[in-house]
Amino acid sequence: MLRSLKLGAAAMVVAAFLTACGDDDDGGSESNVDVQQSEDCATRTQEARDAGELEEVSLQLQWVSQAQFAGYYAAVAECYYVDEGLDVNIVEGGVDIVPQDVLASGDVDYAISWVPKVLGSIEQGAGITNVAQIFERSATTQISFKDKDIAGPEDLKGKNVGSWGFGNEWELFAGMQSADVQLEDINLVQQAFDMNAFLAGDIDAAQAMTYNEYAQVLETVNPETGELYTPEDLNVINWNDVGTAMLQDAIWATTEKLSDPDYEERTVKFIKASIKGWAFVRDNPEEAADIVAASGSELGQSHQLWMANEVNKLIWPSTNGVGYIDEEAWAQTVDIALNTKNETGATIISKEPPSSAYTNEYVEQALAELEEEGEDTIGADYEPIEVTLQEGGK
Amino acid sequence: MAQIWNRFRAVILGVLGVAAVVVTWDLYKALGPEEGVLVGDTRVLPRTTDLAMPHSWEMLQRFGDPVTGLPGAPDAFDAVFDASMFSLGLAARGWVIGVVVGLVLALVMSRLRIVESALLPWVILSQTVPLIAIAPLVRRWGSEITIFGHVWSSEDSVAVIAAYLAFFPVAVGALRGLKSPDATHLDLMRAYGVGWWRSLVTLRLPSSVPYLLPALRLAAASAVIGAVVAEVSIGLKGGLGRMVIDYAVAASGDPAKPWAPIFGAVAIGLVSAGAIGLLGLVLRPFRLTGASNG
After folding, report:
1. What is the per-residue pLDDT across A40-69, written as a single tens digit (0 to 9) for each?
2. Do A183 and A236 share a domain, yes or no?
3. Model-level pTM greater than 0.80?
4. A55 and A106 co-located in one domain
5. Helix, strand or coil for residue B57?
6. Which GO terms of the molecular function aspect are on file (chain A) (predicted)?
């Protein structure tokens, strides 16, 4: 009796274990992002989709859902893409997902990635083109506590300097090189995703994105005061000021497909609607942060809003209109990629990138069309908002 | 009666084991040096600050608090529970695929010597390829596949990567088990003139059970690890792997939070090991026949 009971129970558990395989595909758990649209926009999207008026376009992000990409989410949520006849599918990144590789292999139509990271891929044969430089400024900084007295790259000498590596180290190395600090002069420390090593004092100057890690520090309680750390506690080396900034988030397209008039047209539409999305984020940072949060980002509310606001600062005000690739900034990025050596003596690229590496052809069209529609693509009087961070970014 | 007492004792010991870990954690946190224990420049025991080691009760408490400050955000417990179930489902799928593949490989290898010589090195070699190298490849290859109208999803990729880890112990263990019967028993079968198929069912399979059970348990553990790591690798949303990355942002400001998905992973590891334990109960009648007199 007891035995057959046991057998029955065992069989049931095994069956339950196995049926866990059956009920998959509830749709929401794919790497495709389900962007939260307003009811009105959701209906419009569905109608246009049913009528077969939309072209399907996929966009590979560099990382998981977060306000760093708020403009694209806003463009989906506010139907800017649908207005252009595009049905945009946002694909999240992951730790081992290299957007430019996914794009080059033809799995997606566009990808978001940093210029220096892609330059290396292009030299190795990836045929992709920068069609819109969304972030005009770099968000990479090196932060340190005031008592370490690190105000500029020249003060890094003899310090424990953190870096994530994997292509995030070049602005730091170029900055040090410009201040005549050699790699042997510092102790390079591999940095993790979190800022604990910095807070514990293992790292004197830590790498921090203005929109993420910098905020992580400001969300932490300072044990000495019992309050959160404040910007006054920190020194920030901003590579934009040092002059070794490199171009970051850009929209990349497949070079080969750009000879196809259909794809060219789609590219203009995609850039145009994306810029509109970023204009929405500029004017409504709170709403944009909420859209990203509702679309599956796990970041805390204040952290998300901080990120949206900081990303806005990287874009607005724009010198030549959002997306326009500034020749000088491009040349600076290429120059650093050619001439800065990392700890193994390697550079990102060994020769000038091909002329197909970037083009302003499509973004110019998009900007012209937006101007005609009366959209502000410069944001000359843009003012960032004040974001109050909560403990833990909640 | 004695049996019930044994069960009871096992439960008590289990609870005591967990309690011992918790007590050690908090005792070290209370008494250990703030800077941890260093041998030379190498830290052998961690710092005892709240950042590095949150109190055990804080980690527990964190489960009851909302994940984020957003209105309508679920409690951390609910979020971790959902993610755990999702990862467990993928691990189970990977486990089933891995077990089937492993068994088939073992059968073919035990049947034909030449196949064993040809395949076994590859089976072993397969485990030396780092998971993070194959994960993006599987996703990319998968994205070009459609099987009978089912479009390949990232979830399938994760299940396949979990299976990639899970098939190995099964293939090796089952092969060992299938070859384990005594020569005298095999000779007897031959003397009876029964074919390969019958001797497989009546002799080889039953006697492989004692080898198979630990292999299946190992496969379950591998499948869980494979699923979680693959989720991290390809950024699949919904499971524990992705949660580890998402919560890492809070490591400084809300140090108890990143521990939540780790406990989830421990829990599903225990659940899957438990499920295999129950499977062992089902296969119990065969356990004895396998061991030859001893």
Report:
1. 899 999 999 999 999 999 999 999 889 999
2. yes
3. yes
4. yes
5. helix
6. metal ion binding; transferase activity
Two structure tokens written together for B225: 């690890």
**Same-domain status, A126 and A173:** no
Q: What is the DSSP string of A294-336?
A: HTT--S-HHHHHHHHHHHHHHHSS-SSSTB---HHHHHHHHHH
DSSP E strands in chain B: the ranges are 37-39, 42-45, 146-147, 150-151
pLDDT at B223 over 90: yes
Q: State pLDDT tens for residues A129-171.
A: 999 999 999 999 999 999 999 999 999 999 999 999 888 899 9
| Cα–Cα distance, B69 to A92 (Å, whole number) | 23
Can you give the length of chain A in residues?
394
Q: pLDDT tens digits for A121-130? A: 999 999 999 9
Q: Given the structure tokens 């406990």, which residue do they identify?
A: B263
Q: Give the N- to C-terminal CA distance of chain B in Å, as an integer.
A: 28
Q: How far is B114 from chain A (nearest CA, A)?
A: 34
**Chain A hits for B92, Cβ within 8 Å:** 17-18, 20-21
Instruction: Name B209's Cβ contacts closer than 8 Å, sequence gap at least 6.
Output: B177, B283, B286, B287, B289, B290
Longest dimension (CA), chain A: 83
Q: Give, to the nearest 10 degrees, the angle between helix B154-178 and helix B76-111.
A: 40
Give the Cα separation of B193 and B190 in Å (integer): 5
Residue pair A25/B156 in contact (Cβ under 8 Å)? The answer is no
Contact A87, A56 (CB under 8 A): yes
Domain boundary among A209, A242, A275: A242
Is the distance from CB of A193 to CB of B248 less than 8 angstroms? yes
* Dihedral, A96, A98, A104, A109 alpha carbons, nearest 10: 100
Query: What tokens were used for B179?
Result: 């070859």
Please tell me whether residues A130 and A175 are part of one structural domain: no
Contact check, Cβ <8 Å, A10/B282: yes
Contact between B69 and A390 (Cβ < 8 Å): yes
Strand order of the sheet with strand A187-190? Answer: A187-190, A160-163, A205-209, A140-145, A234-238
CA distance A334 to chain B (A): 28
* ipTM greater than cut 0.85: no
Q: Is A99 exposed, middle or buried, given 0-12, 13-18 or 19+ CB atoms closer than 10 A?
A: buried
**Closest C-alpha among A156, A147, A164 to residue A183:** A156
Q: Which CATH number is B65-290's, of 1.10.10.10, 2.40.37.20, 1.10.3720.10, 3.30.70.360?
A: 1.10.3720.10
Cα dihedral value B134, B139, B141, B146, nearest 10: 140
Residue B96: in which H helix or E strand, if any?
Answer: helix B76-111
Domain boundary residue among A193, A214, A242? A242
C-alpha angle A129-A249-A299 in degrees, rounded to nearest 5: 140
A86: in domain:
yes
Residue ranges of the domains in chain B? 1-53, 65-290
Is the previous residue joined to B136 through a cis bond, with omega within 30 degrees of 0? no
Residues of A in contact with B274 (CB under 8 A): 13
Report the candidate in A112, A38, A73 with the shortest Cα–Cα distance to residue A304. A73
Q: Do A95 and B153 touch (CB under 8 A)?
A: no
Residue A178 amino acid letter:
S
Please indicate if any CB of chain B lies within 8 Å of the CB of A95: yes
Sign of the four-CA dihedral B178, B183, B188, B190: positive
Within an 8 Å CB–CB cutoff, is residue A226 touching chain B? no
Range of the domain at A361: 39-136+246-383
